[in-house]
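ok so i was messing around last nite and threw this chain in just to see what happens. nothing serious, just curious
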Amino acid sequence: MSFLLALDSSTETLVVAVSREADLLAREGEGGARASEQMVPQAMALLAQAGLSLAELDAIAFAAGPGAFTGLRTACAVAQGLAFGAGKPVLPLDSLLLVAEDLRLQQPQTRFTGPCWVLMDARMNEIYAAAYEWQGDHWVTLRPPALYTLPAATEALQSLPPQALAGNALSVFAEALAPVLPSGVPQAAATRSRAAALASLARQAWGAGAAVDAAEAMPVYVRDKVAQTTAERLAAKGMA
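result:
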């Protein structure tokens, strides 16, 4: 039996989950700026509720990205710190794959064959996107997570037509994406339980032998530029 702690602050929701095989204890709440101060206390409280110590864990998982820059660093730093202290390995998880896993768990009777595209609002009129395929007991990445403009996203969807769709960009950019989104395929614009999906991915990663040394855990950034310089902001306002 594996004992896993999983952490996620890649979105505005803070998720902490402790799993023992199929059993799950989890907390989901406000993340964002509060994630850094809340993650460790909530993780320790959840472990206490489960009757576990850090030393009894097999590994510590975290959502590595893509996602909110500060949130990714927070989850990575906490996972590394706890893992170093307890002498445990780390499981970096794909934050977009978490959304695909949530869709799969929402619709357990559906056969997920063919590309499942995850489309998440990346702000700045851009989309984080990736394509995966469920192969019976594990996911395979068809298109790795990347940052797309809307035209680039529609082109990617046309080149690899989705057989399932998930992510909040389906509602945020509904009008722009509508011409290339097929009807009648499994889809969900909102996640039902990030905690359940996070714990499920952690178990899959542990079973696949994906654990790494804590020193090797790194956030996954796909956006090189997250802010404008002063000169760029002034130019945009016509003041330069």
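not much to say yet. The chain has eight helices and ten strands.
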